[in-house]
Amino acid sequence: MANYRTKLRNIGCPELSINGVKQRRGAVGKGPNQVKKPKKAEVNFCPAYPVNETKESLEKEREELTLEVKKKNNNQLIGRKMEKTFAHRRRELIEDMPFIAEFKNRWPALFSENQINAEFNRITTVPLLSTFMAQLDHYSSKLMKAFKQKGGAAGRRINLIMAAMDQNLEDLGSVLQLQAENARTDRTGEESEARRRSGSSGRLLIGVGRTAEARDIFHPSPRRECVTAVTDARREGPASDCRG
User: Fold this and answer.
1) Rounded to the nearest 10 degrees, how much is the dihedral formed by the CA atoms of 221, 227, 232, 234?
2) Is 27 left (phi over 0), alpha (psi -120 to 50) or beta?
C-alpha cells in the first residue's frame, strides 16, 4: 500500500501530493505530523483540476463568479461556474485554510441554500436535505423523549413548543380525515351517477353482445342476410333468386 501511495504521489494525485515533504516544508506554523486527509466521508476531498484548466484560469472564473452573484435570476450560470471551480475552491480550503469571513468574501455564491446543498453533494456524493430529513425522522422519537425529560426554564419553554406542535398535529389530522371522507363521498357519487346513466338496458346489451346471435345482429353475415330476404319474399309473394 505504501508503494502504491508513492506512485500516486509521483504522478500528481492531489490528495497525496498535498502532504508531500516539499509541501510541508513551505507551510507556516504547520506541525510535522499535521496530515491533511478526509475525516468525515469526504469522497471528493481534494479533487484534481478539470481537463485543460489551471489554477490561474479557475481564478478568473472565480472573479467572474463574484460579478454574476450580483445579478438576478442567474442561478443556472452560477451553478455551472460553481461546479467548474469546485477543485480550486477545495484546494484553497485545504492548503490555505482561510478564515470564514475571508472565504465568504471570495466565494459569496457558496453561502446560499442551493449552493450549500450542491456543495455537500459534490464533496460526499450524498444529498444533504433528504438525508438530513430522513435521519431526523429516524431519531425523532428519541429526540422527543429527550426533550420531555428536560427540566428548568429550558424544559418549560420546550413543553410549550411541544404542546403547540401536538395541537397542530391534531388539527392537521382532522383536516386530512375530512378530506379523505369528502373524497370517498365524491367517488361514491360519481359511481352512482355512472350506473344510473348506463341503466339496465346497457347492462343487458353488454351481456347479450357476447353471444353469437348478438354478433349476428350487429354484424350480420351475407348468408343470414340472404335467409332474411327469402323469408320476407315468401311472405309477400313468389320466391326471388338468392345465391350465397
Assistant:
1) 170
2) beta
Specify if 6 maps to a domain: no
Average pLDDT, the chain: 76
Owning domain of residue 242: 216-244
Position 74 in a domain? yes
pTM of the model: 0.58
Count up the domains in the chain and report the number.
3
17-60: pLDDT as tens digits: 776 655 554 554 455 556 677 777 788 888 889 989 999 999 99
Q: Which three cell numbers stand for residue 80?
A: 455551472
Asked whether residue 154 falls in the same domain as residue 118, the answer is no
**Residue 33 domain-assigned?**
no
Task: Provide the CA 71 distance to its chain's centre, in angstroms.
Answer: 27
Q: What is the largest CA-CA distance in the chain?
A: 125
Are 182 and 100 within one domain? no
